[in-house]
Amino acid sequence: MEANATANPRPKKMHNNYEDEEERKHFQRIVAAFKYYKPHSLSRVKKSESYLLTLPTHHQKLLSKYRDHLQEVKRCIENNDHIIKLIIKDVAHIFENVHPAAAQADSTLNPRPVMVDQEKVQATIKQLVRDWSVEGTEERTACYQPIIEEILNQFPLDQCTPSNVYILVPGAGLGRLAFEIARRGYTCQGNEFSLFMLFASNFVLNKCREVNLYQVHPWVHQYMNNLKPEHQTQAVSFPDVSPSDLPGTAQFSMTAGDFLEVYTEDNHWDCVATCFFIDCANNVVQFIETIYKILKPGGVWINLGPLLYHFSDLPNEESIEPSYDAIREVILGFGFRLEKEETQVKTRYAQNINSMLQCEYNSVYFVCRKLHQHIDNVNHNHRNCLDSNGAQEQEN
Ligand SMILES: C[S@@+](CC[C@H](N)C(=O)[O-])C[C@H]1O[C@@H](n2cnc3c(N)ncnc32)[C@H](O)[C@@H]1O
């Protein structure tokens, strides 16, 4: 399946298999998940409220501010729901070949919220902070800046026609990295298969015209590890930049669909940029193989992220979890030359900086090049990577 959201994007042309009954049902399930956000989230607050009411009166008295705080939490959920309504407002039209009626609520769908879907709605709200808020600046600097700088280094703006440089960002999330690349003049396409992300990125990229016009309360579902009540109810404005603020010549698009299915054309891209993506595969080797194939000879793959294998230990899912060392072997085995490599890159993902619980990744960052000549022998490839002093050896 494929979809485009373009530079001044009315996202266009999402043609694909949505005629397919299963896909249609999936689409409806995600719309339903967004719709169930409010009742589901409020029921969580009500649970605390109900318990509070059963406590001894003097306990309740001591907790009067906490009771007021729960009122505030409900107000925040209402506000989030307002944004969610905007996000799903026109999604029936997001894909070109879906009849709007097909996206109406299906009475055969089980109306009970699925827990895992609600977590994804909440994660989508947090992703707005990572990608499109001032509060996400530090996180983006750590994750996206090394990639952007390497692109500028590989394809200097004064030495090429940037619009002739084709850059793909698979697993684009809410699209900020791809947007930033396009903003610098390159032809950039983000690819994403999660409808949670696609609905939200469609809203930001195509509907948000004014800076910081909207607000969400991204941490309102985090009931634990709050130092102050306002850390749970904090409002975050978005978007921090106007997504329509792209040079007139910018070529920016988003495609919807599984990266492995959408990108089948060999030798097409000058650069593939992956951020927190390669661990989203059942078989990471298949991702690496696809990246290798679709890059032009001489093209570069820039990657940053951890190895939080997303399918690991999930029921009914297959997964392999090779270490970074093993992945390195695979990369070289396909015929990439490793040109830059860094470990222990401190990065965060949609992190609430006020929380008492912090999660930080020691990510890996690397830049590798598809050689003009494929060398089948893995041992040969070893000679083509950085030597122990970090110096590059010749291609042959
Ligand atoms: C951990 S998120 C990272 C998003 C973004 N790159 C960032 O750094 O914020 C990984 C994203 O890849 C998407 N994804 C995973 N597997 C995919 C696939 N096979 N094709 C397209 N997108 C995929 C997920 O839906 C998710 O949005």
TrEMBL record:
Locations listed in the record: Cytoplasm, Cytosol; Nucleus
> Per the UniProt record, which EC number(s) apply here?
2.1.1.22
Q: Which SMART domains match?
A: N2227
Q: Look up the coiled coil feature and give its residue ranges.
A: none
Which Pfam families does the UniProt entry name for this protein?
A: CARME
Major place of localization?
A: cytoplasm
BP GO terms, sorted: carnosine metabolic process; methylation
Q: Which GO terms describe its molecular function?
A: carnosine N-methyltransferase activity
Region of interest (Disordered), residue spans: 1-21
Gene Ontology cellular component terms for the protein in this record? cytosol; nucleus
InterPro entries from the xrefs? CARME, SAM-dependent_MTases_sf
What's in the keyword line of the UniProt record? Cytoplasm, Methyltransferase, Nucleus, S-adenosyl-L-methionine, Transferase
The entry sums up its family as follows: Belongs to the carnosine N-methyltransferase family.
- Please describe what this protein does: N-methyltransferase that catalyzes the formation of anserine (beta-alanyl-N(Pi)-methyl-L-histidine) from carnosine. Anserine, a methylated derivative of carnosine (beta-alanyl-L-histidine), is an abundant constituent of vertebrate skeletal muscles. Also methylates other L-histidine-containing di- and tripeptides such as Gly-Gly-His, Gly-His and homocarnosine (GABA-His).
Protein name stated in the entry? Carnosine N-methyltransferase
Q: Which organism is it from?
A: Dinoponera quadriceps
